[in-house]
Amino acid sequence: MSLFSSLSHLYSSWADSRALEKLDADRLNDLGLNAFDIYESRRLFGQNRAAFLDARRTERAFSWLR
To answer: Which of 28, 57, 59, 64 could form a disulfide with 32 if both were Cys (CB 3.0 to 4.6 A apart)?
Structure first.
């Protein structure tokens, strides 16, 4: 049973990444991200991916406020 849950988790992780890849540059910019961030996050899974994207978004927000 754990094999199926692992495969399900992996597939949902890929599906989330694909959904972000389909956004255009303006929408990604509204989120504080760019296409390179999405590309870099593909090698990470789950909470690691979310933490990476959140860190990138926060870094851009702070640089914009400076």
So the answer is: 57
